[in-house]
């Protein structure tokens, strides 16, 4: 079963690290030369779910729990975003 | 994922990520450095909610050129030199369109021990601090207290002294005093904690008095002249006194200054110096 995790060469901060606002927000980059990337709202929720690592099912479940949604409601969107994050190499597959 | 907004990350986020970028460069190129101030400050030594606007690092002096090469390889551009960056010639600045300012320090104002030896002393008790979820080496708690107090003294007093010194237990303050003595930073520490008058006969007394209490540029130059060690240092100071700082003028204008602008600023500096001197003569 494929597991997903934040790639080794990624640095990131969320609004929690910055005493920021209410909207879930994460800023990330690939080190050392990557551009800054912004994930807001549900994108940030998926990122925070990814920070624990896990299978796609586990990440969807964690994101659903964090966003008061059902797995059925969000699974397609989460899977699509995770695929995009893998494509830009900020998320690694094991 | 946002496209345009990628270049508009808030300063606090940029600073955290920039520390991580610099750390990765250091690891890739075998560079010894310590992260200072901002998110590098250990818990309890900085007021909650305070954020830095730039990245400060102290690099082992022997690794400076390696760090400059690494920074510039990913797009940082040098904006001030060590000669023009500050009174102490201890730091220079680099700018990056995504990551903002990095202040590279080869020594810390107030520390008089040889810079290479001072780096070893400060690195001795270094600990890892997570910044942007990356381990970054930062000075230990005692060294951080000293660094914050020295910075406060240099800046004419800041709120940092309260947490870094006033609220430290007596034994912690003793540790800071011992570290300051080892680094030859006794006078600067005294300036930061209100004990400067105990060092009235020190050559750097007037300079620290100026930093803490302020004064005219005339006072500052007199103090710098008194603190300069040796004829060569005094001569260099004199020649630089009237020279326009092109780096700062560039930052002020947001572009390289023209020859006419440098000349105009030169005239302004001379007039101001003459004005301050005339004022002193009238009062005396």
- Unreliable stretches of chain B (pLDDT < 50, length at least 5) are 3-7
Main beta sheet of chain B, described?
Answer: 5 strands, mixed
Cα-to-Cα separation, first versus last residue of chain A: 9 Å
Following the backbone from N to C, one meets helices and strands of chain A in this order, namely EEEEHEHHE
N-to-C SSE string of chain B, H for helix and E for strand:
HEEHEHEEHEEHHHHHHHHH
InterPro entries (chain A): PQQD, PqqD_sf
Protein name (chain A): Coenzyme PQQ synthesis protein D (PqqD)
Pfam families (chain A): PqqD
Organism (chain A): Nocardioides alpinus
Q: Which characteristics define this entry?
A:
heterodimer; A: 94 residues; alpha+beta; 6 strands; 26% strand; globular; B: 284 residues; two-stranded antiparallel ribbon; 13 helices; 7 strands; 12% strand; PQQD (chain A)
Blueprint of the fold:
The complex is a heterodimer of chains A (94) and B (284).
Chain A: E1 3-6, E2 10-14, E3 25-30, E4 37-40, H1 42-50, E5 54-55, H2 56-66, H3 71-87, E6 91-93
Antiparallel strand pairs in A: 1-5, 1-6, 2-3, 3-4
Chain B: H1 11-29, E1 33-36, E2 55-59, H2 64-73, E3 77-78, H3 82-85, E4 91-96, E5 100-105, H4 115-124, E6 127-131, E7 134-138, H5 141-154, H6 160-166, H7 170-183, H8 186-192, H9 205-213, H10 217-227, H11 231-241, H12 246-253, H13 259-283
Parallel strand pairs in B: 2-5
Antiparallel strand pairs in B: 1-2, 3-4, 4-5, 6-7
